[in-house]
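RECORD TYPE: inverse folding
INPUT: structure tokens
STRUCTURE:
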């Protein structure tokens, strides 16, 4: 026992407690700086959930247990001290349960839609295969965290695909997407056009490309839509310019629709030619036409977070390099099959659906700023329930908070966004907090009794 006394005294010492407090303060400072420079997710993964934080928390638990053992056998005046220390340990255990098994995500739906998929912060990498380009079969799927487990050409993340393999060699947490439309020599690649829509008040220029596996490529420009199709699609109640490639490989057949689905004009347009649409003096000009095209996508690294930045992966497959952005998919066509690679947030399927019946927004008087917003949702076994900014819905262990909404081009709300939380450690943390408060009260009570008895002598 004598040989164990020095190391045990070190574990129960005030010096270790001071070291733990200073370490926690340093980590909190680093976490605050990291969150300010990047975002909360980076701070969580690199600081608050790092091996350094877990080590400090482990030392804190060891120090608390050692201090309690050092006071053994406990006396009556130790009751508050012991309860408070056990409360801290209980609180830390509850926090670990939340971090390990909790769910924190979002659910978005439009009015009338039914949803049960919650988008979480975790990332998932998946690969699908198809022989005909349409029917997809999942062949690989896994959760990934390239922020805490970085990749490089020397240490790639390898996805085996039979005799082939995909090697993920670069991860950028913040990057800007850049794309370039180029002419392709492969006949299976779809067409692309660069066009201009203009009138005295509007002047916009865009690229529009149709993938080989899609029947239509479409851009919604607000006052009108432009469609690049393999055959004229049915009208959809919008001003529309529909272009269809023909056998000449030098021109496109076009149909111009009005909002009432009537055909305003038909014809054929060549590169550099202009067509009068008839809407508000709008002119359509075909600037470039590529019968077969390809899109080269790359990402430019950003040193800090930005509303326009996203995370991206670079990987190699059959001696070719590709970039893949977050929440996107890439199709790779081979001679005998097609692979689709997707990288995005992992989705959690709830055991029950929610249907958005109505969404309403209240504005501050005289402004267009939202003062309040709420969702009327239909919940199984509960009926219709209102979720507002101050009234969350609690159902089957999940809590749904009204967090935000999405607008369309006109500024009108079109979708409701709910924050979804499942915290299995909540009640453990409540118990731990209550024990800390109770222990502190008892501790101060005994100190007061001791002080009064000392004065009475």
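DESIGNED SEQUENCE:
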């Amino acid at each position: 026992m004598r040989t164990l006394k020095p190391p045990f005294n070190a574990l129960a010492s005030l010096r270790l407690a001071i070291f733990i407090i200073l370490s926690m303060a340093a980590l909190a400072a680093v976490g605050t700086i990291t969150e300010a420079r990047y975002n909360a997710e980076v701070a969580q993964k690199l600081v608050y959930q790092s091996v350094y934080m877990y080590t400090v928390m482990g030392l804190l638990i060891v120090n608390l247990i050692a201090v309690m053992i050092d006071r053994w056998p406990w006396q009556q005046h130790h009751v508050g001290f012991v309860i408070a220390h056990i409360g801290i340990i209980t609180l830390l255990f509850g926090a670990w349960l939340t971090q390990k098994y909790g769910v924190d995500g979002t659910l978005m739906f439009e009015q009338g839609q039914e949803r049960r998929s919650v988008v979480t912060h975790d990332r998932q990498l998946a690969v699908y295969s198809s022989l005909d380009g349409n029917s997809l079969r999942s062949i690989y799927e896994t959760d990934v965290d390239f922020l805490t487990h970085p990749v490089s050409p020397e240490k790639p993340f390898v996805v085996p695909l039979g005799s082939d393999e995909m090697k993920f060699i670069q991860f950028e947490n913040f990057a800007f997407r850049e794309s370039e439309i180029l002419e392709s020599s492969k006949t299976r690649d779809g067409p692309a056009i660069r066009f201009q829509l203009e009138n005295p008040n509007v002047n916009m220029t865009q690229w529009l490309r149709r993938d080989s596996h899609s029947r239509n490529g479409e851009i919604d420009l607000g006052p009108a839509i432009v469609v690049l199709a393999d055959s004229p699609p049915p009208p959809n109640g919008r001003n529309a310019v529909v272009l269809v490639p023909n056998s000449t490989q030098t021109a496109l057949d076009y149909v111009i629709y009005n909002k009432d689905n009537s055909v305003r004009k038909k014809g054929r347009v060549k590169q550099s030619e202009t067509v009068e649409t008839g809407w508000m003096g709008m002119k359509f000009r075909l600037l470039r036409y590529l019968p077969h095209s390809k899109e080269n996508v790359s990402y430019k690294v950003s040193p800090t977070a930005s509303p326009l930045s996203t995370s991206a992966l670079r990987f190699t497959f059959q001696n070719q390099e590709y970039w893949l952005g977050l929440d996107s998919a890439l199709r790779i066509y081979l001679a005998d099959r097609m692979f689709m690679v997707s990288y995005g947030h992992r989705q959690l399927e709830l055991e029950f659906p929610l249907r958005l019946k109505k969404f309403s927004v209240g504005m501050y008087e005289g402004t267009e700023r939202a003062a309040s917003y709420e969702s009327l949702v239909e919940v199984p076994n509960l009926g219709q329930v209102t979720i507002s900014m101050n009234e969350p819905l609690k159902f089957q262990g999940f809590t749904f908070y009204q967090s935000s909404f999405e607008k369309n081009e006109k500024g009108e709300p079109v979708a409701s966004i709910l924050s979804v939380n499942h915290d299995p450690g909540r009640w453990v943390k409540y118990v731990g907090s209550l024990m800390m408060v109770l222990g502190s009260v008892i501790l101060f009570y005994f100190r007061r009794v001791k002080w009064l008895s000392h004065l009475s002598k």
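NOTES: The chain has three domains: 2-102+425-456, 104-117+348-422, 190-291.
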